[in-house]
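tool=predict chain=A
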Amino acid sequence: MKKAVRRFLQGCSLTAAMFVFQACYGTEFDWGEPLRLTFQVVDESNNTIDGVNLQSRWEHRNSDGELTSCGKWTLLDVSEDNGVLHAYIYERELPYTRFQFADEQGRFEHLDTTFTSISETDTVNIMLKVKRIADE
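tool=predict ok
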């Protein structure tokens, strides 16, 4: 009988400990499924560009638009012959994410941009401008 009471109290103690842990730390937040964003990088003549790095970082700005904090740049994808890039990001992070499109060979100007909303079914065309050498 003593063993049964002891096991019952141990079970209650373990259950109470799990309840307190759950109450303090909660369950993991469900972000849902990430969006699969598709970009196609082209030049001014609408030719696809290969070797373009797509990077992203999280940024937070105050009500005046001043940058208050940001993360590190993370490489998401590199374009191939068709100029297509993919990024996986959660919809709620989209307005706080800055995307950078940078040519590996330095032929084109870098483009930094943010999006407030993008449809997962659309392909967004990103046009990079050719770097101009200034006349001296």
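Residues 32 and 130 are 39 Å apart (CA to CA). Helices lie at 2-25.
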